[in-house]
Each structure stands twice: as structure tokens, then as C-alpha cells.
Amino acid sequence: MSHKIPVVWTNDDIHFGKSAELRRQLELLDRHGIPGVFFVIPSEGGDLDQDKELLPLIEKARGRGHEFYQHGFKHTAFECGFPELGMLEHDPRAKRRFDEERGRLEERHTLEAQVRMLESGRRIWRRAFGEDSAGFRPGGGAFCNNFYHALALLGFEWVSSRIPSFTSWDWNRGLWEAPIHFREAIPTRPWIHPQGIREFPIAGDYGFRVPNDPVRIQAMADLALREFEVYYERRDPMLVLSHFHGLQYAGGDSNHPHPQGTGYAVHEILLPALLADERTEFMGMKELAVRYPAEGNG
User: Fold this and answer.
1) What is the C-alpha separation between 124 and 151, in angstroms, rounded?
2) What is the pLDDT of residue 259?
3) What are the percentages of helix, strand and coil residues in the chain, rounded to 5?
4) Could you give the count of Cα atoms lying within 13 Å of 282 in the half-sphere of its Cβ?
5) Do the Cβ atoms of 30 and 249 come closer than 8 Å?
6) H helix or E strand, kind and range, residue 274
7) Pick from 172, 180, 162: which is nearest to 228 by CA?
8) 164-197: string of b/e by CB count within 10 Å (b at 16+)?
9) Are 226 and 188 in contact (CB under 8 A)?
């Protein structure tokens, strides 16, 4: 009998004022009958605890099995460390700052500064939900050693920050010939950082900036399924990534916008395919943390 692996559908960047965007994603998930794991920004456009429409929506979603965790503080590019260089290719302004202001940016990455930043976001989270977030995901996959140390000192149970395969991000910026490549230095399995915090690596974002082209939409769904085979062979969980603005991206052609959003179109192919595969078991992070205790250092 074949084994099963967990698949976790994760989503980044919901924040103050984005209740309509969250509601639309919840409709997608509820229609397919799978849980969503949302990483929510504490302070962008306003503090999360001040959004009187978003908070009740989150509370109702939690009651249906969806989960919500902290995503950065203000979600600036360098608040948790430096993003991977490939990620900076998606943000020309941040790339220029990295080139021109690296010394000043590094001042934000002392242990004391990281503790202050994380605790600032956590205070807002507590006001919003009356509890701490068990997990954390940094914006843009940024990290530094002091960031991981600060998470451990503050009692976070896990982090989801590292990206074993960058192929989907290459494709999302038009490098369609880039091959699937899983980097040996970044495990797909959960592990414990030397600083003492558990890591749950992130799979691809297969619907971030996909052109309004049926061939490209299908190719992105196929990429996700091909990468699923790698996770399956390794018996490791697959944390699919998405962003609300990527899901609803019109396709880059203002004369021919996708009526649904090209990211949503990708997931309307991908989710049924995964659900039909008996080797797949959808779950949230609470169950995943129990099922896959991390052992050893990465």
C-alpha cells in the first residue's frame, strides 16, 4: 500500500482592510473541503486588532478548521533578515536597497532589534486574538541567525521560512525554461535550526504572477504536481504557498484580464488533482506539528 504525505495549503499577506480578499479565499477552500493556513500581517494599512470586519471573519473561519499565524510585523523586505537573492528579483526597490544600504539594513538584525520587532507584532496579535501565535512566517522568506534566535527566546513553537525549490518563483518571473531543482543545502523535511526553533520549509507558489494564458496556467499546476512527487518520494510534507494578490492577479494584460484571476485558475486545477490523489492528506499546521516532530539540525 502506498503511503500518504500531508499537504498544507498556506496563504500569506492578509492584513488590515483585506476581509473581502480573505472571504474569497475561504470560499475556495470551503468549496473544496480543505483547511487553509493563513499568515496574517499584524500592522500593514493599520493594526490588525482595529479591523472590526476582519477579526470576526477570522474567528468564524477558525471555527471551520482554518488556522491563522503571524506573518512578520509590518512585512517590510528586510525586517527579519535578508531575503534570498532570487526573491529580490521580484522586488526591484528592495534589490536596490540591498545593493546600496546593506550596512544600515544589517543594524536591524541584531538580536535585540529582532526581539523588539517580533514582540511589537506579537503585542498587536495578542490584542487581536487574546493569545500568542504558535508559528511565524517572515515576509519574503527573509531570515538571519538572530531572527531564529529571537523566535526561540520569545517562545514561538515553529517558523516556516526556507524554500527548498525556487523553480516556481523563477517561472513566475518569466523564466519558463528553468528546470525543477531542489537544493541539497535546504531540506524538504522539517528540522530544528541551531538556534532552537523548528522549521517547516515552504513549497512553491504556483500562482503568484501567471500570465493569462491557458498553457501557462496548466504548466504551473503541472509544476506543483511534479514537485509533489519529490515530496512524496521523500515522505516529507508539502506546504503549498499562495498570496491573495497572486491568486487574483489578472494576468498582466489589461486588454485581456482573466475574469477569475490566474492564480485562482491554477488552484482550480491543482486542488482537485491533489484531492483525487489517494496519496495526499490535507491538514493544517496544528496536526502537522504533531505528525512530523522535527529532529536534528538542518
Assistant:
1) 16
2) 93
3) 45, 15, 40
4) 21
5) no
6) helix 262-276
7) 180
8) bbbbbbbbbeeeeeeeeeeeeebbbbbbbbebeb
9) no
Tens digits of residue pLDDT in 273-293: 999 999 999 999 999 999 977
* Residue 18 and residue 244 in contact, taking contact as beta carbons nearer than 8 Å: yes
Most distant CA pair in the chain, distance: 56
**Do residues 251 and 257 make contact, with C-beta atoms less than 8 angstroms apart?**
yes
User: DSSP secondary-structure letter at 185?
Assistant: T
* Residue 169 neighbours by CB under 8 Å, 6+ apart: 86, 87, 90, 163, 204, 205, 208
| Beta-carbon contacts of residue 15 (< 8 Å; ≥ 6 apart) | 40, 41, 42, 43, 44, 45, 48, 75
The three three-digit cell numbers of residue 240, written as one number: 503549498
Q: Which amino acid is at 211?
A: P
Instruction: Assess contact for 185 and 146: CB atoms under 8 A.
Output: no
CB-CB contact of 122 with 154 (8 Å) = yes
Each residue's pLDDT tens digit, 28-59: 999 999 999 999 999 999 999 999 999 999 99
Give the DSSP per-residue string, 3-47.
--EEEEEEEEEE-TT-HHHHHHHHHHHHHHT--EEEEE-SBSSSB
What's the grid cell of residue 209? Answer: 504572477
Angle between helices 214-234 and 262-276 (to 10 degrees): 40
Pairing of strands 191-192, 198-199: antiparallel
Q: How far apart are CA 151 and CA 196, in angstroms?
A: 9
Cell of 159: 517558523
What the block records as the C-alpha cell of 102 is 546593506
Note the pTM of the prediction, 2 decimals: 0.96
SS3 111: helix
Report the number of secondary-structure helices (H) and strands (E) in the chain: 11, 9
